[in-house]
Design goal:
The longest helix is centred in the first third of the chain and has 49 residues, at about 90-140. Helix content is about 45%, strand content about 10%.
Length: about 1050
């Protein structure tokens, strides 16, 4: 019953808190109300925060209620309730105690039920994922006799022993004919694009730790960009990030371009650059959770920059032919989505690095039980993040991980990846047999590199640590010591002792408190060594986030408990450039570095410590396993075992021979984690990805003058200047010859089309008006509003605004035949359109020439398209649990080479888009799914086919900036409707033009919300209350700045 005594104490504390607030409210309720109404907004704490808001962050009542609910079993609560009833009297306090006890008991039961429901959902998802894996495995389990013969014929030299060796290690890589990346290969001029969207990114004086968005990822991508630019064969590296022109941050984050490494004339390199793309609110620094609705805008800006720069580089090194990126690499979930869209648009390979993953975080938060599923989603936008990561897996050729643990325990949680299925598919690809339309990205382990340029030669000397200089009595000698050394040593009674160093954030997951307990309870270790804890920077612990504050408070209490004064250092501040000096100090004292984290995804600090000759002790959970295997310079421990931690530290510090051996091994093997080695492995794996990626690229209409993207406007890019200067030195095309070549190209194109107006779009149009109004009847046919809307938009542009150089494009989910019939009935001339994209962006036509599909566009969509392999699978998966035979059936009239269409019976229960996409991913299929025609049709198209991608394709091919484009949509529409609203283009929502939409079939209520896709209050979106009136349409265009 000891637990009940604690409960009673907590309940009494809740009552006392209630009485306290009750008196305040009772005595001063009127004056408090007046204060809240008139004075509240002006009362601040001196730091820009409202006092009432600050005080509301902590509630005594809530604290004790959470303690009762989270710390005790409901049976204890029930026993306490019975006891209160048995001792009931007429006192008001006892009655309140009984009532409160009953309410908290029910609250605990409700929490338990919610936890049970969440666990059931996770279990159900695991079962569905396993079923999907089994379905895929059944299809791939046996090779037909013909496939066996083909495999044997193509790989006659392959012995059975090599297959057995591959089976032995489930992560064994399939050997390819690709040679190792070598400096002796033929000259290359590679253009590489890296994307890290959130946080504060700059090359010098990085503000690491300033906030949760500016951490190790920023350092990683900046150093990777520099290292790649210094690799032979790489011409230029661009690191794309968000441009921030906010008074809250330094002005350097608002500069459109920043040079990371200088162009090397001798090496034929243009260097590395940070390119900042405008995205979202220009004057605000917003957290990554708020960036999701602005991703399409970033995609459009990045696309403009890449296209313009590819042309400029092509002019310099490839005779005018655009030099497209060699690879596009997205870092974290937001950049993964950006990279996926750009990869599909430009038809180049995509690489993904997750850094940290949403699904793993989501499951951990659910297990903690402190936040509901809804609260987690609203706070962290976790479902939006998970979908971006899944989409990144769909599009990625390769996923770079730091450790094998990340592959198994983190990426293995995702619908789009399965270790066993990925291996089976690679085996089949090598043998040249069918994968039945299935695809899995290739996971490769490439540890992050490290910049060893600031490691001094003396750090690698194999000698005893020299501490005499630290203890010098003369002030002149002490003045030469690094300031951080003095700051650390002032804590110690005896600075001669070896230093045990721990360096991390003050995060509970870093497990610093267990380390401190291990040190405090081991008398031998305390007598032998000192302990230094570098736990970030702080001014006032009380002003820090709750988790950090709690850790630091516990650290101070433990130091006091074990009386560790004079033995533990815990400096308040340190600069990033002082970290190497901290490592040097520990090495000079013959110390040890320790990382005791509960789980460490990688462990970059372990590599840094090894570079300075420090032996290491590290957690056995996660990346340190691979690091110590490579370096062989320390010991692994169970982070929960205090005795194991103290024993390992004591062993390394006390055994001098072991210490020297670990030091030597670390210094000898550290080159494995250099950026040079990282880039070599990286480019080797990317080369393999490119060998099986299509090479179809844009056949762009030549444009005499192409406007620069907004990210480069008004900026003199030094690398472009370098390119232009070199061109002048080498000689350039005569302007007359260039003009003649351009005219001949256009004439050839017109003659090939057999149409005298074949050059209808060769730069004559300055703007594009895109009509994507999904106006259907309840049965799925075009409504009468459809042609009326088209006529009103054309009238608003040509008559009301007098815009004559506007090209019109129609985007629809219906087929070409259905569209032409509707236009004919509505008396709309199809020749008024520059392009028609039908069947949800799966096909492109140009009415001003022969009405045939654009083969270049289809080539962009081909990759990863499962085609016939997915036809029957969709029928089976799209039906509800108790389906009727005709709920959904194939619609042959809506199918084409890049679209499989299905008719959906009115009122039929079919799977939503998010549910159906999930089931297809589990089976290795990568598709885009759209319900169209008022929900009466399902279009299954290639992954990169969509109406937004069709628009981007035309803008690049025709050289039209997306900011000069207007997209007209209804207030509802197909399930891809909301994705048409965001981006650099202007969006005009025409109310009253669409009566029946398909949004109900998009996603469940538990998924992310529309606000995570469409930016609220965007200056690029306008709404027309009556979309059938042309003068209102023209007024909306004028308000958006369309002239």
């Amino acid at each position: 019953m000891a637990g009940n005594e604690w409960i009673n104490g907590y309940l009494e504390a809740i009552l006392d808190a209630g009485n306290h607030y009750g008196k305040i409210g009772g005595d001063n309720s009127k004056s408090a109300a007046k204060t809240a109404k008139f004075d509240g907004p002006d009362r601040h704490d001196g730091k820009g925060n409202n006092e009432e808001a600050v005080s509301s962050l902590f509630s005594t009542t809530r604290y004790f209620v959470e303690e009762v609910v989270n710390s005790f079993d409901e049976r204890d609560l029930h026993r306490t309730w019975i006891k209160v009833i048995a001792t009931r009297n007429t006192r008001e306090r006892n009655n309140r105690l009984e009532n409160m006890c009953w309410r908290i008991w029910h609250l605990a039961r409700k929490k338990k039920q919610i936890a049970w429901d969440d666990a059931q959902k996770l279990a159900k998802r695991r079962i569905e994922r396993e079923q999907g894996r089994n379905d895929a495995a059944d299809d791939l389990s046996e090779l037909s006799e013909g496939e066996k013969e083909k495999g044997d014929g193509n790989n006659g030299s392959e012995s059975s022993s090599s297959v057995a060796a591959a089976a032995k290690d489930k992560f064994a890589r399939i050997n390819s004919d690709v040679q190792l990346w070598s400096d002796e290969e033929k000259p290359r001029h590679l253009y590489i694009v890296l994307i890290s969207m959130h946080g504060l990114v700059r090359g010098e004086n990085m503000e690491l730790g300033r906030d949760s968005d500016t951490g190790g990822q920023v350092k990683y991508v900046v150093e990777l960009a520099r290292a790649l630019a210094n690799t032979k064969g790489v011409f230029r590296v661009d690191l794309l990030t968000r441009q921030i022109a906010s008074p809250e941050v330094d002005s350097s984050y608002g500069e459109p371009i920043e040079m990371l490494s200088c162009p090397q004339d001798a090496a034929g390199s243009a260097g590395a650059y940070i390119i900042r793309i405008p995205c979202g609110p220009r004057d605000k620094y917003i957290p990554k959770e708020s960036l999701w609705p602005h991703i399409p805008e970033f995609v459009d800006g990045a696309l403009n920059h890449i296209v313009n720069l590819s042309r400029a580089i092509g002019e310099q090194i490839d005779g005018g032919k655009p030099t497209w990126p060699y690879v596009i690499h997205g870092h974290y979930a937001d950049a993964a989505e950006v990279a996926a869209h750009l990869s599909g648009m430009l038809n180049v390979p995509m690489v993904l690095t997750g850094h940290s993953l949403g699904r793993n975080k989501f499951e951990q938060l659910l297990k903690q039980g402190r936040l509901s599923r809804e609260d987690i989603n609203s706070t962290y936008k976790i479902m939006r993040r998970i979908e971006a990561e899944e989409f990144g897996l769909d599009a990625a050729e390769m996923v770079v991980t730091s450790t094998r643990q990340e592959i198994e325990e983190q990426w293995g949680l995702y619908d789009g990846f399965d270790v066993k299925l990925e291996r089976k598919l690679r085996v089949r690809q090598r043998r040249g047999v069918s994968c039945f339309g299935r695809f899995m990205p290739r996971m490769v382990v490439i540890p992050p590199g490290m910049d060893f340029s600031y490691v001094k030669a003396e750090d690698a000397l194999e000698g005893d640590g020299d501490l005499k200089s630290l203890m010098a009595s003369e002030k002149s000698q002490k003045r030469n010591l690094p300031p951080i050394w003095s700051e650390v040593m002032r804590f110690f009674t005896n600075s001669h002792k070896p230093m045990i160093l721990a360096l991390s954030r003050p995060d509970p997951k870093k497990n610093v408190t267990t380390l401190l307990k291990a040190f405090g309870e081991c008398q031998q270790l305390r007598e032998l060594a000192n302990l230094t804890l570098i736990l970030g920077n702080r001014d006032d612990i009380e002003e820090m986030p709750e988790g950090s504050s709690s850790v630091l408070t516990t650290v101070l209490k433990l130091i006091d408990k074990y009386d560790l004064y004079g033995q533990v250092a815990y400096p308040k501040h340190h600069k990033q450039n002082e970290v190497p000096e901290i490592y040097r100090l520990a090495a000079k004292t013959k110390g040890v570095f320790i990382n005791p984290a509960l789980v460490e995804p990688f462990g970059l600090t372990l590599i840094e410590a090894a570079a300075y000759g420090l032996p290491i002790v590290a957690t056995k959970n996660g990346g340190p396993v691979d690091i110590l295997k490579a370096l062989n310079n320390g010991l692994l421990v169970d982070p929960h075992d205090q005795k194991a931690i103290s024993d390992a530290l004591l062993k390394l510090v006390a055994d001098k021979n072991l210490w020297v051996e670990c030091r030597k091994n670390g210094l000898k093997n550290i080159h494995r984690f250099s950026w040079t080695e990282h880039c070599r492995n990286y480019l080797l794996h990317v080369e393999h990805c490119r060998n099986r990626h299509p090479t179809t690229h844009f056949q762009m209409v030549p444009v005499p003058e192409e406007p620069m993207s907004e990210s480069l406007r008004d900026v003199e890019d030094l690398s472009l200047k370098f390119s232009i200067d070199e061109l002048k030195a080498n000689g350039e095309l005569d302007p007359v010859a260039r003009q003649k070549e351009l005219i001949e190209s256009l004439v050839r194109k017109a003659s090939l089309n057999g149409n005298p107006s074949g050059n209808n779009y060769t730069g004559r149009r300055q703007k594009i008006f895109v009509i994507a109004v999904d106006s259907y009847t309840s049965t799925g046919g075009f409504s009468e509003n459809f042609p009326a809307v088209i006529k009103n938009i054309m009238k608003a542009a040509r008559v009301d605004l007098g815009l004559q150089r506007v090209g019109f494009v129609l985007l629809t989910g219906a087929t070409l035949q259905e569209t032409l019939e509707s236009l004919k009935v509505g008396d709309v001339n199809v020749a008024d359109f520059e392009a028609l994209s039908c069947s949800s962006g799966s096909v492109m036509y140009y009415p001003w020439r022969v009405m045939e599909a654009d083969l270049d566009y289809e080539g962009h969509l081909e990759y990863k398209w499962p085609g016939e392999n997915v036809r029957s699978m969709v029928l089976r998966l799209a039906r509800s649990e108790d389906p009727e035979d005709d709920d959904i059936k194939e619609f042959n009239g809506g199918c084409n080479s890049k679209c499989i269409a299905y008719d959906v019976k009115a009122g039929a229960k079919v799977k939503r888009i998010d549910d159906l996409r999930q089931r297809l991913r589990m089976r290795g299929f990568r598709c885009n799914l759209v319900y169209t025609c008022a929900g009466s049709r399902l279009n299954v198209t290639p992954l990169f086919a969509s109406r937004t991608q069709a628009l981007r394709y035309l803008s690049v091919r025709w050289g039209i900036d997306l900011s000069d484009t207007a997209v007209f949509v209804g207030d509802k529409g197909d399930t891809d409707h909301e994705y048409l609203l965001s981006g650099l283009h202007k969006s005009i929502i025409l109310n009253g033009t669409v009566e029946f939409g398909s949004e109900r079939l998009l996603r469940s209520n538990e998924n992310f919300k529309r606000g995570d896709v469409v930016p609220g209050g965007s200056p690029r979106i306008a709404t027309v209350e009556d979309g059938l009136k042309s003068y209102l349409i023209s007024a909306a265009l004028t308000n958006l700045g369309v002239k």
